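re: the backbone from monday

yeah here it is again, tokenized this time
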């Protein structure tokens, strides 16, 4: 495609040099590890609590729908706030909101008032907090870490995300819920308190100085969407993520019912360990993404995500409905985690290279609205399909979606487009 890199030279507002960048990098790594363990525990705990209250796949899947719905409803406005306000303060606020939500869930449990509506409300609060934290977190890196360290830092942060969220957090979540809901929720509350403290220790200026006068919110939102839509490479990446994120959301939404109360008949602890395969694949991906990029190029490194996502939803479609199929499901999750990490590392470097710092919040929000906005829709659809047609049909629909992703990827994510990204990322800090 001739306009793959048709956007103008976009590094117009690189951030100033970062003070004590090594300290910031380690603080962000530690924060990422702790808060993702908390997120993993809640993502395991909430659906498993719902499983205790209902056997309906649709009602269980609604937890995943509400956790992701805020991306569709609030992402664009959050993006504007991220570009206007102190990004660290927004992340601290998100940690506080998570702490309050989980604390309220703990009180409801201890008082014997736990119900599906309570779980759903907590899921919504956690979802909004995630939109704020992820959008601000993706935008804070240029102000916290020097440009020469971006790829290394992003690879490390991504590795910690998968290590904490999947490999460590998922089995811990399953174990804690099995050991006691109160213990799981109390532990998670403490983790979010620690996250807020770590963020407070970051050094630097995390409020972007605008290069032009602030305008009405709707105009700034339009600017972020316009930047994404005019750039063919970035737009296509967002649309591909929309399809893959939908498949992941569907898998996550109906897997608890499929694995625990459905055909696999796993215990809560065993379900948590199946999820570790996703994290193990993610960790492996961060270890090999550098060599794969060097020997095969970013293009094939990113293409692995399409293959892994296809395996994620195809294996439950094809595997026999018996407990032994958990091994195959775990292997597919490993492949998905592997590909997902390599896409994440490369896409973050691409975004941070091509998008001006003052636009990162709005761009991140717009791209995630397109990319992740399908998640609640896909999760709801998967729940309905699993209820009416069965788990195999539900997974199969999303497997078919994956089949068509290779063609647009290969047509747009070309070697020439990615070579231009590498050229821009190789320039020193502050150079256009």
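seq for it, each position gets an aa:
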């Amino acid at each position: 495609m001739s306009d793959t890199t048709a956007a103008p030279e976009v590094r117009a507002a690189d951030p100033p040099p970062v003070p004590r960048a090594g300290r910031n990098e380690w603080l962000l790594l530690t924060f990422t590890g702790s808060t993702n363990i908390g997120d993993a525990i809640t993502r395991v705990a909430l659906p498993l609590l719902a499983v205790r209250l209902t056997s309906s796949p649709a009602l269980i899947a609604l937890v995943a729908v509400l956790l992701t719905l805020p991306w569709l409803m609030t992402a664009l406005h959050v993006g504007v706030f991220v570009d206007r306000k102190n990004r660290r303060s927004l992340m601290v606020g998100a940690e506080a909101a998570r702490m309050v939500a989980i604390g309220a869930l703990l009180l409801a449990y201890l008082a014997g008032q736990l119900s599906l509506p309570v779980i759903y409300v907590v899921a919504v609060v956690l979802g909004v907090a995630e939109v704020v934290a992820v959008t601000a977190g993706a935008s804070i890196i240029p102000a916290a870490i020097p440009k020469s360290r971006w790829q290394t830092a992003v690879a490390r942060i991504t590795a910690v995300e998968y290590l904490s969220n999947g490999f460590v957090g998922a089995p811990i979540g399953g174990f804690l819920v099995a050991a006691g809901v109160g213990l799981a929720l109390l532990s998670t509350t403490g983790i979010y308190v620690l996250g807020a403290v770590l963020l407070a220790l970051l050094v630097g200026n995390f409020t972007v100085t605008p290069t032009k006068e602030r305008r009405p919110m709707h105009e700034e939102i339009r600017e972020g969407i316009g930047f994404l839509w005019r750039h063919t490479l970035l737009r296509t990446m967002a649309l591909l993520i929309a399809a893959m994120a939908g498949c992941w959301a569907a898998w996550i939404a109906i897997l608890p019912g499929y694995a625990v109360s459905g055909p696999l008949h796993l215990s809560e602890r065993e379900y948590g360990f199946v999820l570790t395969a996703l994290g193990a694949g993610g960790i492996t991906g961060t270890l090999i993404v550098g060599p794969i990029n060097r020997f095969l190029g970013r293009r094939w490194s990113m293409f692995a995500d399409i293959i892994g996502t296809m395996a994620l939803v195809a294996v439950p479609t094809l595997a026999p409905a018996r407990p032994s199929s958990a091994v195959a499901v775990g292997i597919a999750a490993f492949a998905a985690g592997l590909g997902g990490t390599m896409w994440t590392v490369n896409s973050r470097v691409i975004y941070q290279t091509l998008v001006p710092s003052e636009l990162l919040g709005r761009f991140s929000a717009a791209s995630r609205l397109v990319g992740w906005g399908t998640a609640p829709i896909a999760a709801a659809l998967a729940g309905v399909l699993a209820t009416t047609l069965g788990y195999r049909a539900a997974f199969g629909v999303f497997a078919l979606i994956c089949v068509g992703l290779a063609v647009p990827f290969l047509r747009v994510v070309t070697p020439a487009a990615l070579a231009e990204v590498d050229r821009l990322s190789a320039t020193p800090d502050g150079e256009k």
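The two ends are 24 Å apart (CA to CA). The chain has one domain: 21-204+216-425.
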